[in-house]
Design a protein that fits this description.
- The protein folds into two domains: 47 residues, no CATH class; 41 residues.
- Helix 2 crosses helix 3.
- With 89 residues, the chain is mainly α.
- This is Transposase.
- InterPro entries: Homeodomain-like_sf, WH-like_DNA-bd_sf.
């Protein structure tokens, strides 16, 4: 919608306000964010795409999960090491 209306106005803010009114969005700032995100995703604007951002979030979650698993394994190894070091009766 923004791209269709854009040519009729001098600035980007005017068509964003019009689109916000047409969609019933409370503020044109929301539409501005949507437009900028779409421009980044299309490659028309520099920035991190939605896909790249989602991948980074996924990798951070995976990294945190692996760190927790590693911590558990270290604790288990320490426990069993202590068990093996005890003199048997």
């Amino acid at each position: 919608m923004f791209e269709e209306i854009r040519g009729d106005h001098g600035t980007d803010w005017e068509p964003m306000t019009k689109v916000a009114q047409l969609l019933g969005v409370s503020t044109a700032e929301t539409v501005r964010k949507w437009v900028r995100r779409a421009q980044v995703d299309e490659g028309a604007r520099p920035g991190v795409t939605s896909e790249e951002s989602a991948e980074v979030k996924r990798l951070k979650r995976e990294n945190a999960e692996l760190r927790r698993a590693n911590s558990i394994l270290k604790a288990a190894a320490a426990f069993f090491r202590a068990e093996l070091d005890r003199p048997s009766r």
